[in-house]
Amino acid sequence: MSDLFGTGSNMSRRFIKDYDDLSKVVANVIRGAGKKIAFVAGTFDVKHHGHERYLEKGKQKSAEILGADIRDIILIVGVDSDESVKERKGPGRPTIPLDQRAEQLCHSRHVDVVTITREQGPQWKAMETIKPDALIISKRVKATEEQKKKFKKYCGYIIELESQATTSTSAIVRKILVHNLNEIEEKAGELIESIENLKKGG
Questions:
Q1: Is the peptide bond before 91 cis (omega within 30 degrees of 0)?
Q2: Position 31 confidence tier, pLDDT thresholds 50, 70, 90
Q3: N or C: which end of the chain has fewer CB within 10 A?
Q4: Distance (Å) of CA 68 to CA 58, 71, 72, 75, 92
């Protein structure tokens, strides 16, 4: 297991795109070593401190609920595909493509395995493949009891977490866009002024 869950990012081993390969790793490597699995899915676009806190808190809560040492909890993160993010959040998203978002997660000390979640909404195929002992979801999702009932077909416990940051990726993207627009307006104003001065001089 050292090459898969060692201290390095080991993206070539830890980012498992194919569900058949993921199923084998879950059964032979993770379950075979007696580990428990926590699963969380998300976009993780423009990863910020709130994401890291959320992953850390999710792993800690999973250990508590499952009565396990945190070192025996394997956190698998499902990253939404570019197509899924674009459909849900608009043509300008994701800001960062899938492979780069996955690599960022592989560098996180709280994450053990990364995979892709393809479907919209609840990621049934990923959960069905992994069958996690604990599923971590955000309270912002406001999952209904009916949705939770469906989740329970594929997982053990459901852990609902509050947002762990005062910001969001969307807010960060908006701030960058506004800043850039202000700069463009300022430059445009200077250019118009220069043109007017040239006209007066001519």
A1: no
A2: very high
A3: C
A4: 13, 8, 6, 13, 41
Backbone angles phi, psi at 56, to 5 degrees: -65, -45
Tell me the average pLDDT of the chain.
83
- Does this model's pTM top 0.70? yes
Place of tokens 């001065």: 197
Name residue 104's amino acid: Q
Contact 39, 78 (CB under 8 A): yes
Q: Which two tokens stand for residue 52?
A: 């890291």
pLDDT tens across 77-90, in order? 999 888 888 887 88
Which SS3 state, helix, strand or coil, does residue 39 take?
Answer: strand
Question: Would you state the structure tokens that stand for residue 137, as one six-digit string?
Answer: 């979801």
Strand partners, 135: 39, 158
